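Collaborator request, handled under Task 6.
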Amino acid sequence: MQSSTSLELAKHALLMFGIILAAGTFSGVLSRLLRMPDVVVFLLVGILLGPNASGTINIAADSTFNQLILIFGSSYILFDGGATIRLKVLKEVWITLVVIATIGVLITAAITGVAAYYFLGLAPIVALLLGAVIAATDPATLVPVFKQVRIKERVAQTVMSESAFNDAMGAILTFTVLGIAMGTGEFSIGDALIDLLKQSLLGIVIGGVLGYLAALFIAHEKFGFLAEFAPVVTLMAVIAAYMGADGLHASGFMAVFVFGIMLGNQESLGFKLTRQEASLLEDYVLTTAFIMRMFIFILLGAQVDFGLMNQYLLRGVAVVVVFMLVARPVTVFLCALPDRRAKWSFKEMLFMCWTRETGVIPGALAGMLVGMKAPGAQIIASVTFTAILMTILIQATTTKWLAKKLGLLIEE
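C-alpha cells returned to the collaborator:
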C-alpha cells in the first residue's frame, strides 16, 4: 500500500512537472509577442491554472516539491543574476548598495508598518512585522526583468545587487520582530547587527571560495580539467553554496549570488574559457534559469489565495500603495542621495524608486508565519499576496516604458 501511495504521488508530481513545462513554454512565447517580462505572464497563467480558477495545478505551498522549487529555483536565478554583475560597477556604487540593503530595509519596514497600523488597525508590533516581511526586494523577480529589459548598467546592477544583499536583512528583521510579537525575545540593535554581519560575511566568504574554486577548475589553463563539465559544476556549486551557508546559519542567497559574481568575473581572476566553452555554459545557464523562472512564478500564481486576499483587499491595497509610492521613494532618496561617490542623477533615483518588486522571498516568509501561527499571520499573508500581485503586474510591466521615458534604456 505504501509503495502504491508513493507511486501515485510520484505520478502526480511528474504530471504537475509536465503541465508547468508546457504552460511555461506557451507563456514564454506569449510574453515575447506581448513584449512584457515573462514573469508577469507566468504569474497570470499560474493564477488561471491554480485552485481558484481551473484547478489544473494544485500543489500545497508547504509541500516538499514546492519548497524544493522555491529554494533551488531562487538560488539558481540569483546565481544567474550574480554572473551578470561586473566588479568595476560595484566599486562605484558600493556605498549606496550597503546602505539601501540594510538601513533601507528598516526605513521601508517602518513606513509600511505605520500604514498597516492606520489602515488595518493592527497592533504596532504586528504592523511592524508586516512591514518587515515585505520590506526586502525579490531577486527572483528583479533579475529576470533586468535580463530581458536592458537598462543602464550601473542602475540595473545596483538594483539586482540590492535584491540579493537585502535578503539577509529582511529575514533577520522579520524574525527579530516575530520574537517580540510572540513574547519570546527582545529587540537588540547590537545583536541584530552582529547577526546581520555574521550572515552576510559568511555568505560572502562561502560564495567567494566556491566561486574561485569553480573558476579554477573550469577555466584555469593548467587545472581546468572540468571545463567540459562546466554546466554540471555550476549546478553542484549553487547547491553547495546555498546548503553550506544555510548549515552555518548564514545567508544562502548571499552565497549563491557571490558565487555567480566570482564565476561571471573569472577573467578578472586571471581565468578564461575558450569561446566554445563560454558559449556552451552561457546557453545552459540561460535555459536553466528560464525553466526555474517558469516553475517559481507559475507555482506562485497558483498559490495566490484570493479568499484570504478578499478579506482585507481594500485596506491591503491602501497599505501596498503607501509601500510603493511612499516607503520606496523615501528609502531610495535617503540612501542614495548622500552617496557623492556614485553621483546618482534624479532620473536614476526615480527609476530605482519604481523597481522594487515583491515576490518569492516575502511570500515564503509570510507562509512561514502562517505555519507558525504568528500574531496577525493571516492578515500579513493577505497583504503580502496583494503586494506580490500589484508590484509584479504594475511595476514589472512598466519597467521598460519608464526606463525609456527617463533615458535609461539601452536600445538593442
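The cover message to the collaborator said: "The first helix runs from residue 2 to 34. Residues 73 and 292 are 5 Å apart (CA to CA). Please let us know whether this matches your experimental observations."
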